[in-house]
Structure formats: C-alpha cells, structure tokens
Design goal:
The chain contains eleven helices and eight strands. It is an alpha/beta fold and 251 residues long. The longest helix is centred in the first third of the chain and has 17 residues. Its main location: cytoplasm.
Length: 251
Amino acid sequence: MRQPLIMGNWKLNGTKASVEALINGLKAPAAAAANVEVAVCPSVIFLGQVEQLTAGSAIKFGSQDADLHTAGAFTGENSPVMLKEFGCKYALVGHSERRTLHAETDAVVAAKYVAIQAAGLIPVLCIGETLEQFEANETNAVVEAQLKAVIDVAGIESFANAVVAYEPVWAIGTGKTATPEIAQTVHAHIRAYLAGFNAAVAAKVQVLYGGSMNAANAAELLAQTDIDGGLIGGASLKVEDFSTIIAAAAK
C-alpha cells in the first residue's frame, strides 16, 4: 500500500506573514490525516522560517529546485547539501517551469536528480507533455523519454527513494485538468514503463498528479488506482483548499 503524498508547490509566492499563517493553518489538518504525508515546497528564501514553523508538526518540506553542484562559483544557485542542512526532505526536479523557462534538458534534470539523492534528499521527478504533444498523442513517448534519461544515469533502483510527479503542462495554471480517466491512464503507463525495468520498484513508487488538482476535483482524481497524491500549485496557497485535498487523500 502506497502512502498518499500531498505536496504544495508555492512557486514564487509568499511573504513572511503568509508563510506563517499557511503553516500554522495546516498543522491541524496534517495531524488529522495520519495516513497521509503532507509537504510544502516554499521559495528557498523561506526555508529557514518553514523549518522553524514546522518543528514538532506532521508537515514535511522541500525545495522547488536544487543545483547539480554541491558548492562552488555558481552564483544564485542552491546546493542540495545546503537544502538538506535546512531540514528539507524533498526537492522538486525537472518541473515544467524549469524545463521551459530555464531550458533545463533531460540531461540536466538527470544530473540534478543524482545530486539531490546523493545529498540525502528525495527527488520529486516532474514529467509531462505540452499541449502540442498531448494533441499529437505523444504523451507516452514524452514521459518515457523523460524517465529513461534518469534511469540511464541513476538506475531504476534509485526510484525506490524517489517520487514521480506527472504534470501535463497543458493543465498547469490554465484551469484545464486532465479527466480522472486520462490522468489514471497516464499514471498506469508510467508505472508499467518503470515495471519493465523493475516491477517491485514500480509497484512502490508514489506517482503524484500535478495538473491543477484543486479542492473540487481532488477526491475524484485521488480515487484512481495509480494516483498516489498530488503536487498542488495554486490551491496549496489557501489553507481551506489545501486542507480539503488532504482530507480527500485521507479517505
């Protein structure tokens, strides 16, 4: 049985006051959902504050990215070793916004994935297709290529200590959401593809849905066999909405 994981990606949002209100508001819902892992990924500048606020709570946290270097002359980057020191459990890698806005290739994503694991963090590998690729029926080929790039470098066994997040790029921030049936089909394909390398690892890896999951659609999405949680964007910035999603996962 895979434990549900509900993870908020705050993206470039937050103030000291909003971060405090959000964490404090989520403590009770996270504690009430004992069978669900609840995590947030704030902007790196808030990690110290989140580390302090979450102390003694059920809330875990991670970073939205990590550099592939642990130290050196890399201005503006954040080492996975530093992120670990601040209490991070997770680090997102390969988010569609990093791939598109920062031109991160599959090779760069794979290198970051390796660095994240080497530092003792759990990588949350984000994969997914654009609208053009979706309409051209290339979804399976795209997610396979993105997974294979990591498998080639890190090995299939590395997925025993990783999370996969399927994010159809066409459903992020657009208000469009893959139907539960579409999402389940892709999640099942991701698991089947990984099972072709190692069935035991594939059966245990958490595959999150990251395409505009919200309070209204969470229950139906989370009811699908191969959807093990959500990587939540906008809804994770609102205590009530995020709490509703956590409760849906607990059921």
